UniProtKB/TrEMBL annotation:
<keyword id="KW-0810">Translation regulation</keyword>
<dbReference type="InterPro" id="IPR022040">
    <property type="entry name" value="MKT1_N"/>
</dbReference>
<dbReference type="InterPro" id="IPR037314">
    <property type="entry name" value="MKT1_H3TH"/>
</dbReference>
<dbReference type="GO" id="GO:0003730">
    <property type="term" value="F:mRNA 3'-UTR binding"/>
</dbReference>
<dbReference type="InterPro" id="IPR006084">
    <property type="entry name" value="XPG/Rad2"/>
</dbReference>
<feature type="domain" description="Post-transcriptional regulator MKT1 N-terminal">
    <location>
        <begin position="477"/>
        <end position="565"/>
    </location>
</feature>
<dbReference type="Pfam" id="PF12246">
    <property type="entry name" value="MKT1_C"/>
</dbReference>
<feature type="domain" description="Post-transcriptional regulator MKT1 C-terminal">
    <location>
        <begin position="652"/>
        <end position="895"/>
    </location>
</feature>
<dbReference type="InterPro" id="IPR029060">
    <property type="entry name" value="PIN-like_dom_sf"/>
</dbReference>
<protein>
    <submittedName>
        <fullName>Uncharacterized protein</fullName>
    </submittedName>
</protein>
<dbReference type="InterPro" id="IPR022039">
    <property type="entry name" value="MKT1_C"/>
</dbReference>
<dbReference type="GO" id="GO:0006417">
    <property type="term" value="P:regulation of translation"/>
</dbReference>
<dbReference type="Pfam" id="PF12247">
    <property type="entry name" value="MKT1_N"/>
</dbReference>
<comment type="similarity">
    <text>Belongs to the XPG/RAD2 endonuclease family.</text>
</comment>
């Protein structure tokens, strides 16, 4: 496959067949396909990562059950059997705890269905599907559970589950003594998810605070120490671009999690803190993918290699696991690995008890197939894995219906038995339950087919860096429907080196940009305006930067916006309208190291920082010296060093955001931001910017420009808003608290203990949308620069260039809550200066017992507000008089409370 071609894999996009044509048929007399026999690990072969070029092992399997239909309905009583299902381990949340009687006395809680060669037999005495649906609705009412009546929470019949399903297999053990010097390929997503869901790294209030986990980095470091102590090495593999269906599943999972988080907030507001904490912790609202940067940072600090897959980390691990020349000695991760051709064993991510026992546990695929009696039909096993749901395919809806699967939650065995009743055909099974699919997910069969084909033709990267499509020779002409559109290999290279993230690439691969649910689930007018209007030009600019550097056809493919709160809301990114002005602005920057060093000395700041980028342009002659006048058919080149890349990317970004004009001089907003950065400079140096003051200053002005950082829209209906004093006092307090939400509170490496605020969590959602959009724009600038050959194309990560750019970290609301609580609940105006200082210790003991140095953090927050106020004061007519007065009042309010 060649990079740079705007097409599907193997056929131009315009010429591809319709996905649902009859090219998906069942091969006749498909022979038995057996899983690979278990390959014993040889620790002596795994002292280090293998080097050199290793030829890949081709995968071959017959595609079963795609597009097949039930045939020849048999007659006679001997073929009739009542549908019974083996009950096994549970893995999904129950539909409801309190079960009412069924809607119709004819329908028992376990309603048997007659199956005949894939067809249900229902006569005039059998309950109709309307009766079944009525019973189901009563068994799983949508609005009776606490929290389920939140308008955007998904409380429908089919709860979404992850791919870590129960698989009916006894775990095998693997003592560490047998793994000395072994290299284990680890699915990073599964590893992180287990860490944040289990002790000791579990932080139950993370879904209520937003941001990154407080102690996750500490626990990752401890975990890696244990790998080293036991003389094993992990090779972490991260998911790359989203496979077809994965973003939709992420949206559904997050919507389902809202049911639990809303219940937790109701428990918290009703004074049930312990139950609220447990419910927050069990909500599943935090995505492991959002925490990749923490794990990657630790791995880089320890010089441990990691790999970012083109698409699925599971597919990549399966490829590495089956190389003829041994590259890794085992694979660790989720049960989704069982979908692929592997060397039989899947190791579970370790728990704290595993480290104490010095033993890993896992599953043997061949044994599992034997226990499930499908050893002769591995494709049936793979189909069952898809039926119960994966990270890219929702579970088969009938599995959730208690009238069909009598004992919920269903298991993998239930899915296998469904297939057995339909000649092992997924299509026939769908035909049998077409009425249920019509009601709950009429497109499920199409989704299944795409998922099946995406596994069969998964994309991996070979050991010499070539992106490879499995079973290339049999790739269908409509492959873009299940693989997405092909992007240049160079763009994947930048993804693999963590120079850019997957969000930008995904929008071109699938021509969709998903806005995922927030943690708070609040769709305020200001949030809706932000994501559906204000941020769209930035996203269009990001897309234009990349599309203009790859195949021309890409520029004419619009991108559809998908919003979690309104599936009918349609917005389109028409990124071609942002050119040529976007490239004209960015291509005018090409400052080299000698100039950077001169300005670093003059400003006392470091190149590659926001402070340097803005303060350097206040020098009299420097702006004009930075303007690059390109020849008629040329462009700037030679931006090679890390500092050159950092600095020019930031300048281009600030130019696109309107802080710098075409003459490379600061605009009014740029001057205001420079004023703020200069004012907080001493605090940045004093604390090594542990509070993220630089990024906070920039985001403060972004929020000001989007009309979000103010005292309006206070939402008193959301718990955690200021309650005391006059209306002006509440307005002043919330503005100071919102500003403090941009800063990091220093906390011990323990889960957060302190007050919560849904009010500030909803504001955090606004901050996060702005931060992620700015991060995408930064990455778009970097990708555009490199794709256009303006710098030497890096073969590595340029010493962590991607991680060194701003806006990769998500700051929680804890300092904002602490500042608001201090001003609104604790502070007394009559205290003397001495009493104010002394009483801070009482506040810490009462509200933030595990904070590191709240007195200093509070002082930094107050100084930060002063600095932002100083910048706002210079804006003149850029800000209206009413808002300026609000800032004046808040500044005076704070001055009395120092």
């Amino acid at each position: 496959m060649e990079g740079g071609t705007y097409s599907g894999y193997g056929a131009p996009y315009e010429e591809q067949d319709n996905y649902d044509q009859d090219n998906y048929h069942r091969p006749s007399d498909v022979g038995a396909w057996y899983a690979a026999q278990g390959v014993q690990m040889d620790p002596t072969r795994a002292s280090s990562l293998r080097q050199g070029h290793f030829s890949s092992q081709e995968y071959h399997s017959s595609l079963d059950s795609i597009g097949e239909y039930a045939t020849n309905l048999a007659e006679g009583p001997d073929t009739l059997r009542r549908y019974h299902l083996m009950r096994t381990h549970s893995h999904a949340a129950p539909l409801t705890r309190n079960r009412d009687p069924p809607a119709d006395e004819r329908i028992p809680l376990a309603n048997p269905v007659f199956i005949l060669r894939g067809y249900r037999l229902i006569d005039e005495n059998s309950p109709s599907m309307d009766d079944v649906f009525a019973a189901v609705d009563r068994l799983a009412p949508s609005n009776t559970q606490i929290g389920s009546n939140w308008p955007y929470a998904n409380s429908k019949l089919c709860p979404v589950q992850d791919a870590d399903f129960s698989v009916n297999s006894d775990a095998y053990s693997m003592p560490f003594s047998e793994l000395k010097d072994a290299v284990i390929g680890v699915e990073a997503t599964s590893y992180l998810q287990h860490m944040i869901d289990d002790q000791p790294a579990h932080e139950p209030l993370l879904a209520a605070l937003g941001g990154d986990p407080i102690a996750l980095k500490h626990h990752i470091e401890n975990d890696l120490d244990k790998w080293s102590e036991n003389k094993m090495r992990p090779l972490f593999v991260f998911d790359g671009q989203s496979v077809v269906g994965k973003d939709e599943m992420a949206l559904k999972n997050a919507s389902a999690a809202l049911v639990k988080t809303q219940k937790a907030w109701e428990l918290y507001s009703n004074n049930h803190p312990e139950e609220a904490v447990k419910t927050f912790g069990a909500s599943g609202a935090v995505r492991a993918q959002d925490l990749y940067h923490i794990l990657q940072e630790v791995l880089a600090e320890r010089s441990l290699n990691f790999l970012i897959a083109p698409f699925s980390a599971c597919a990549q691990l399966a490829y590495l696991d089956t190389l003829d020349e041994q590259f890794i000695d085992g694979i660790m991760g989720s049960k989704e690995l069982l979908l692929y051709d592997i060397n039989d064993a899947v190791i579970h991510p370790p728990t704290s008890s595993n480290w104490e026992e010095k033993c890993f546990y896992g599953i043997i695929k061949s044994e599992l197939l034997t226990k499930l009696n499908v050893a002769g039909h591995p494709e049936m096993f793979h189909d069952a894995l898809l039926l119960v749901g994966t990270s890219f395919l929702p579970p088969f809806p009938p599995l959730h219906v208690e009238g069909i699967i009598s004992s919920q939650p269903y298991t993998l065995t239930d899915a296998i038995n469904l297939l057995r009743t339909s000649n092992r055909s997924v299509t026939a099974t769908c035909s049998t339950f077409s009425d249920i699919l019509d009601k709950y997910d009429r497109n499920w069969l199409t989704k299944y087919r795409k998922a099946k084909m995406s596994v069969k033709h998964c994309c991996t990267v070979t050991t010499d860096g070539v992106v490879h499509i499995r079973d290339w020779d049999n790739l269908s002409s409509d492959n873009s429907e299940y693989l997405g559109l092909q992007m240049p290999a160079e763009l994947y290279h930048y993804l693999s080196k963590a120079l850019v993230g997957p969000r930008i690439i995904n929008c071109f691969v699938h021509l969709k940009w998903h806005i995922l649910p927030t943690l708070d689930g609040v769709v305020s007018d200001e949030y809706k305006k932000l994501v559906t209007q204000s941020l769209l030009p930035l996203k269009e600019t990001t897309a234009a930067l990349v599309s203009s550097r790859i195949a021309r056809a890409t520029q004419f493919k619009d991108i559809e916006m998908i919003f979690w709160f309104d599936e009918n809301l349609k917005k389109t990114l028409v990124h071609r309208n942002m050119q040529p002005q976007t490239n004209q602005q960015t291509d005018s920057w090409g400052v080299k190291d000698p100039q950077l060093k001169t300005q670093a000395t003059a400003t006392g700041t470091s190149p590659g920082t926001l402070s340097f980028a803005l303060l350097a342009l206040q020098s009299k002659d420097f702006p004009s010296a930075t303007v690059y006048a390109a020849p008629a058919k040329g462009h700037v080149t030679g931006i090679n060093s890390k500092t050159e890349l950092q600095s020019n990317v930031l300048w281009r970004f600030l130019h696109l955001r309107g802080y710098i004009n075409d003459q490379h001089q600061l605009t009014s907003w740029g001057k205001a931001l420079a004023t703020t950065l200069k004012a907080i400079g001493p605090s940045i140096k004093a604390y090594n910017d542990v509070h993220h003051l630089e990024e906070a200053a920039f985001l403060a002005f972004e929020l000001l420009r989007f009309d979000n950082l103010n005292s309006r829209n206070r939402h008193p209906e959301l718990i955690g808003a200021p309650l005391r004093g006059s209306d002006d006092d509440k307005a002043n307090c919330i503005l100071i608290g919102r500003t403090s939400c941009l800063l990091k509170l220093r906390h011990q490496n323990l889960g957060y203990t302190g007050p919560l605020s849904k009010n500030f969590l909803s504001f955090h959602s606004i901050i996060k949308e702005v931060r992620e959009t700015d991060r995408d724009l930064l990455e778009g600038v970097l990708a555009s620069l490199l794709l256009n050959g303006q710098g030497e194309r890096p073969r590595d990560d340029c010493d962590g260039l991607g991680r060194s750019l701003p806006f990769s970290k998500d700051i929680d609301t804890s300092l904002g809550i602490a500042v608001k609580t201090y001003l609104d609940d604790f502070f007394k105006a009559e205290w003397t200066p001495e009493e104010r200082e002394a009483n801070k210790a009482e506040y810490i003991k009462k509200y933030l017992p595990h904070s590191v140095n709240f007195s200093e953090d509070l002082d930094v927050a107050f100084k930060f507000f002063d600095a932002v106020y100083e910048g706002v004061s210079t804006l003149g007519k850029e800000i209206n008089e009413a808002d300026k007065k609000v800032w004046d009042n808040a500044h005076a309010y704070l001055a009395k409370r120092r």
